[in-house]
Design brief:
Elements lengths: L8 H16 L8 E4 L7 E7 L2 E7 L4 H32 L2
Antiparallel strand pairs: 1-2, 2-3
Length: 97
């Protein structure tokens, strides 16, 4: 479903409220990506960067699908935050006209 283009500050603020609710519903996240331990070793890791250093955490087999869901939510959240920033900019520029 495509969102109609807002023409007024009020319409943009309504879109912003909707976007903020979507962000609030997407906060159960894990940052990183799921990777295998390699062809010789079965299992999966969560790989991420912390202070410029790559880190890994072992994922228990029973948690694998939940971890994949949570990392997918993180990717969605990054997109939603970008949309919010763009929307905030549009509101700011309209208010200052």
């Amino acid at each position: 479903m495509e969102v109609p283009v807002a023409r007024t500050v009020y319409e943009l603020q309504q879109q912003r409220e909707l976007l903020c609710r979507q962000i609030a519903d997407t906060l159960d996240i894990l940052i990183g990506s799921v990777s295998t331990k390699g062809p010789e070793r079965p299992g999966f890791n969560l790989t991420f960067k912390l202070d410029g250093v790559t880190r890994t955490r072992h994922i228990r087999k029973e948690d694998l699908e939940k971890v994949r869901l949570m990392t997918a939510r993180h990717k969605k959240l990054k997109g939603l935050i970008q949309q919010l920033s763009d929307l905030n900019w549009r509101i700011l520029t309209l208010q200052s006209e």
